[in-house]
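Long-time lurker, first post. I've been practising inverse folding by hand and with some scripts of my own, and I keep getting stuck on stretches where the structure tokens seem ambiguous. Below is the full token string for one chain I'm working on. Before anyone asks, I'm not after the true native sequence, just a reasonable design that respects the backbone. If someone could post their per-position residues I'd love to compare against what I wrote down in my notebook.
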């Protein structure tokens, strides 16, 4: 019995690996993509018309006239304040997260457009450095990092104008292949590793469905849905309590999400809004399992997340004689998803966040370039009286805050064929 108790306690420390990602937006990163859309608060469901439709709404492929190519680079910078230890509020090391989106699309015929896109779709993590020990303290590194990568082939059915309904109508579908990388380290690098875990896994069960409808030239409507995806990550070997462990498994859930979008044009002015509902309550409790000291061990990971709502607002004003220079601003509100009873020091605090965005572009007949910047922030205070039970690997009471800056650039072409 004593040996079994030691195994459960030890493996519970390995479940600290989960503590990295109790985000306000879940695993989703609400400040992606591309520079063109992010400058308008990320609004795109109704108006995307290039290969970034793989991320926003596959029905947007209807906007590709011939051969469309797009590349986006998004650099996310930030810091987190949290309580990874019971006695201190700490500030994380600077978070530097480079993201990208690459996409291509081809209008096979009037009715059909094909596309392919790849991008990181979700992420989380941070790193802390703090002294351990009273007599001869040493600096420990405590870090977590997770990234969901997605590759999505897609197509859209482009209904000719006024064929089925007044205006333009398109249906889109994308098949999602997701690959997850996850790492968790705690201890003295290259000396004493108290915890060292590197896991990977893939899923081939995802899809994304979308619709765009433009009843008149000045109004665009859109809807998109992605299904729930569960990725089982595995590691053949790991380090737990400085001892060797093996056959570790941990599931990560990227939940279902439903989005609606509207965009209207008033001369040189464009206004847009998106509303997304993420079924984050699909993340409740998942077991972390493995073998330690020759025996099987398993411990539940406490999520207990809440469904989340993301509201996006954007405006664009086009200047110049040919309206070739769009100036853009936007705003994002992201509701609280993480449960404050089970806080994490490695992600967005269990609070709502707000983001302000701005950018500009230069648009020609067949190509365009765009720049954007965003500023995201949120904070809360968690007293010890609100902490839940049964989560030995969660973070502690204290002040939690997040400040992030996003810098974006994209370039695209659409060559008539």
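-- Answer (accepted) --
I ran through it position by position. Result:
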């Amino acid at each position: 019995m004593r040996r079994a108790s030691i195994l459960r306690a030890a493996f519970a420390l390995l479940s600290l690996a989960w503590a990295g990602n109790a985000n306000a937006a879940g695993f989703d990163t609400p400040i992606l993509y591309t520079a063109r859309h992010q400058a308008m608060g990320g609004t795109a469901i109704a108006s995307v018309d290039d290969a970034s439709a793989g991320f926003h709404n596959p029905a947007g492929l209807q906007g590709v006239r011939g051969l469309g190519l797009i590349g986006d680079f998004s650099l996310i910078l930030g810091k987190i304040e949290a309580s990874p230890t019971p006695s201190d509020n700490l500030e994380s090391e600077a978070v530097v997260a480079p993201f990208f989106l690459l996409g291509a699309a081809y209008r096979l015929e009037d009715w059909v457009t094909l596309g392919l896109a790849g991008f990181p779709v979700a992420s989380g993590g941070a790193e802390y450095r703090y002294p351990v020990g009273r007599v001869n303290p040493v600096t420990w590194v405590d870090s977590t990092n997770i990234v969901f990568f997605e590759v999505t082939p897609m197509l859209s059915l482009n209904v000719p104008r006024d064929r089925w309904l007044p205006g333009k109508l398109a249906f889109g579908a994308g098949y999602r292949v997701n690959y997850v990388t996850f790492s968790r380290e705690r201890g003295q690098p290259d000396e004493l590793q108290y915890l060292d875990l590197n896991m990977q896994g893939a899923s081939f069960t995802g899809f994304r469905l979308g619709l765009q409808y433009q009843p008149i030239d000045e109004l665009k409507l859109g809807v998109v849905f992605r299904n729930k995806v569960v990725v089982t990550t595995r590691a053949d070997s790991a380090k737990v309590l400085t001892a060797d462990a093996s056959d570790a498994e941990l599931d990560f859930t990227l939940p279902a999400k439903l989005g609606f979008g509207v965009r209207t044009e008033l001369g040189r002015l464009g206004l847009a809004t998106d509303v997304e509902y993420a079924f984050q309550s699909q993340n409740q409790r998942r077991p972390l399992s493995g073998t330690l000291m020759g025996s099987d061990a398993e411990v539940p990971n406490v999520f207990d997340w809440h469904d989340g709502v993301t509201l996006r607002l954007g405006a664009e004003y086009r200047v110049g004689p040919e309206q070739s220079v769009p100036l853009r601003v936007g705003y994002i509100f992201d509701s609280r998803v993480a449960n404050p009873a089970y806080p994490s020091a490695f992600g967005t605090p269990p609070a709502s966040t707000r983001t302000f965005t701005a950018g500009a572009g230069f648009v020609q007949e067949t190509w365009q370039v765009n720049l954007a910047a965003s500023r995201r922030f949120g904070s809360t205070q968690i007293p010890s009286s609100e902490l839940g039970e049964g989560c030995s690997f969660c973070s502690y009471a204290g002040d939690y805050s997040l400040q992030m800056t996003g810098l974006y650039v994209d370039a695209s072409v659409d060559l008539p064929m």
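A couple of notes from the structure itself: The CA atoms of residues 280 and 307 lie 4 Å apart. The longest helix spans residues 2-14. Happy to go over any region you disagree with.
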